[in-house]
Amino acid sequence: MEIKTVGVIGCGQMGRGIAEVCARHGYQTKVTDVSQELLDNGVQLIERSLTVAAKRGKMTEQDKDDTLSRLHRTLDIGDFGDCDLVIEAAVENLEEKKKVFVKLDEVCPSHSVLASNTSCLSVLDMAMSTNRPDKVIGMHFFNPVPVMKLVEIVKTIVSSDETIDTSRSFADTLEKTVILAQDSPGFIVNRLLMPYLLGAVRMLESGVASKGDIDQGMVLGCNHPMGPLTLLDYIGLDTSYFIASAMYEEFKDPLYAPPILVKKMVAAGHLGRKSGKGFFDYK
Ligand code: 3HC
Fold this sequence. Notes:
By secondary structure, the protein is of the alpha/beta class. 47% of the residues lie in helices and 14% in strands.
């Protein structure tokens, strides 16, 4: 199936990265969010990212203008009626996501593939809220989307081969490498990453080492680009808490149980980079 127009639900950290990459790779890209303010803010950040890319010589000014001309904002999902593929990157809440899929199923043509960028929730539950469960799939991107080369494609037990092929070919055109996972909480990456990140917090809680030394250990000892506590700040403590809780709920394995410190930091509004304070300060 040829994809010309892509819809992106949500213009937050992930949604705007996905929209930027789609528009950069030649797709007419429609993006929406729940308020004009969030939408305008997200698109402004895309514009800023493109400006930086142009200044660094990664794209010409003409490429930047062409990319922006392919990016269309709307507050009405009804405008997604000509999208061949929609990627949902809304809030990580299954009930909210199911509502989005119901609406997309109503407005999108029958050939359209509906994908979710969820990091851990059941793609099958989203698929079963539509009348086209075979055309629903997970497409999990990584933050920062313009830089990270991976897309996890998550197939449910009812995803059709054609849907998997279409989403794989689409990810190829975005110059991403695809890995294929079953619809199991956390898929491949978060299933491995979360116990590691949560383990770093438990190490801090138990006083084994300082936060600086825990991070330094993994940066210099294992060549990771960021230490685990910096990465938690980068992902967002609220998002990480949510992912860990959802995975613990499913597996009941203490490896995924969110540490008390993370819960308290979320309650205090110390969400990481986005709030200016997490394990480290960003003001
Ligand atoms: N958008 C576009 N480009 C960006 C960017 C952004 N937000 N952030 C950094 N870049 C680019 C820079 O322009 C630079 O490009 P250049 O080398 O061509 O000049 C390059 O990335 C490197 O950036 P910096 O020199 O500013 O900084 P770093 O070398 O420290 O790299 C980083 C920043 C790419 C974020 C790196 O620290 C990194 O890879 N960190 C780990 C990120 C990670 O693990 N992400 C996965 C999170 S888990 C996830 O997303 C799943 C979810 O479900 C939780």
